[in-house]
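Researcher: Please predict.
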Amino acid sequence: MVGQCDEPKVSIIDKIIENFEKLSGKCYSGVCLIVDKNNASHIYELIERLKNIGVDSVKVSPCIVSNDGTENNKYHQPIFEKVKEQVKKAVVDLATDKFEVFDAYHELDKKFRNLNSQNLL
């Protein structure tokens, strides 16, 4: 396995949210919410918290655990439907013309390859 998603620490998430709350001015703020097995059951709650503090857009994406698409899909398979349901609910319940929920949580192509593994960088 190339990498492993670490378990999020509540204090870190709370600190990030606290920092977003401190933002002032007219800026468009977006968050990319990376899904792993540790936060999969809290996706709706996190999106709702982000909306409540004034974030404008949330993109939900899978964490990448391998340069192999099949391995990534295997990692996400046990949580896939649970996450998709929460994202769909968030789109229905929370999305407005001033708050976007973008669903980028999907299976990876079996031919997926990380650019670093191809020595292109």
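Model: The chain has one domain: 29-118.
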